[in-house]
Amino acid sequence: MDVCKGERRLFDEMQMGSLVAWNRFVRAATYEGAADAAGRITPEIMRIYRELARGGVGTIITSFAYVRDDGYHPAHMMGLDRDELVPAWRELVACVHEAGAAIVAQIAYCGAGAGKGPFAAPALGASDGTSPDGTRAVRAMTRADMDAMAADFAAAARRAQEAGCDGVEIHGAHGYLLSQFLNPVWNHREDAYGGPIEHRMRFPLEVARAVREAVGAAFPVLVKINSSDGVEGGMTEDESLVVSEALAAYVDAIEVSGTTYGKVKIAGPGGQHGLYASYAAKLAGRVGIPVILTGGNRLCAEMQELLDTTGITGFGLARPLASEPDLIARWERDASYEPRCVSCSRCFPAAGTNCVLDR
Length: 359
Ligand SMILES: Cc1cc2nc3c(=O)[nH]c(=O)nc-3n(C[C@H](O)[C@H](O)[C@H](O)COP(=O)(O)O)c2cc1C
Ligand code: SF4
What we know:
The chain has eleven helices and 15 strands. With about 350 residues, the chain is of the alpha/beta class. It has an eight-stranded parallel barrel, surrounded by six helices. A three-stranded mixed beta sheet has the order 8-10-9. The structure holds flavin mononucleotide and iron/sulfur cluster.
């Protein structure tokens, strides 16, 4: 079945800055819990990414990789916090490229979004408090902390570039550090980094600028952002639009997501599709860079409809690809294929698979 009515098709090439992917499908970052205890890439990670790349997705965004080890969460997350990790990342990149996909490294500091993990010291955050799960103290960042953190993001991005990644994505969503600055529930600062959205977005912008300066103008930089925090008192859609428009000065594409760690489920109730489509459509009309919609993308016909009627450029999928890594190849053969993922949100890494249907 051909679901395409307009000029843009799901299997068109998609460009984000200098990155050209062979289709508009993106594997949205999905934590695999398969790195070793020191954040190193393992054969299991290589297997997962090879399978995804062979399965037809145009661009793979890696699971979040920590930019410093006290931002580590949860166990067996990948790291990009030190140079010794670069050679193994290079092998991962080669394996993905060999199978025809592009790979973008997602970089993060989990901060108050993290539980206690192995750390005694408080996590760094926008304001003093405790992590959402109540297990770890959080200390408000000083100016010096912010400079050091921006430098850590920049260094991690440079490592991704050295490893041959096709781009880097700054994790600005889901209640982790940068998203925390944006969210008034977590950000109670009374200095130039708290209060109105123009202040709350200051630190995320500083990180984006530092990353851009570290990798140069030609290297693709993406950012993942909440369309809203989805919680009472959190960042609103209108505020998020202000943030995204400002970030567009530093990045080549914006991935739209939603939800806040510890407050709401990773994505909406089972069966709800195109979760943040109206925000993404609005944003696409305002910024001159690609907007990738992630969250509840399940049917080609629905994504094609969005291509036909909005300026959205690409579609991120996490759970459906955790369940069927070859989903995109299936869709290439038959666009009416319905993925088996039922959006139950019971995914958690176990024995090399995230999907409960495989256990
Ligand atoms: C098991 C699991 C792990 C995830 N890990 C990450 C991550 O590392 N970074 C991130 O930005 N989002 C992460 N997400 C969120 C997804 O990227 C995505 O935004 C969300 O699942 C909605 O998309 P979907 O409906 O296609 O699953 C994860 C989601 C799941 C289910
Ligand atoms: S566990 Fe549920 S939501 Fe996750 S991939 Fe499997 S079916 Fe989909």
